[in-house]
Amino acid sequence: MAPREPILTLVPIAELRPTQITVGFREVEEKRRRWREHDPDKKDKFLGSHTIPTLLGPKKRHYVIDHHHLSRALQLEGVESIQVTVVADLHKLDKDAFWTVCDHKAWSHPYDAAGTRQTFKDIPKGIVDLVDDPFRSLAGELRRAGGFAKDTTPFSEFLWADFLRRHMKAKRVEGDFSEALEEALRLAKSPDAGYLPGWCGPVEG
Known about the structure:
two-stranded parallel sheet
């Protein structure tokens, strides 16, 4: 039996619902920069190959479960709609049941910019309302710099962000990002980070 092709739907970004509270604004800006550098003739192809996975939730609204940063970046760049693929149809559930399923399936991350868990009602209603977490930006840059490996663990970069938040002051991240990244690279190789997804182990001396 052939695998079923995903059904793609074009949805206005303004109608997408987040399943998390924060993103890293610095990471959003990086994705905006890359978008602007794309050959204008290839932007449609890029959009066609970067579908947003969603859940069909109550009132048949689309809830984003990955690529929040990309969605926000494209929105800021004036892209009005994007292709989504529905991972699960939960539109018949009431709101409480819907969020319970999201919680158990690791499809939601209701943590604020201080790393503190909030209620599902605190999750923004729109991509435009996502809040900045500088440590999420630092974790994303840390992975790109080889500090840890990409991992399939849900919200793995948020776990790294929380680790960094516990070992560094926010003022340092906001004041000198390059210096903060150097410190993050050192922390990432320490045994203290050994429990985290994608940990690459200490540097052999």
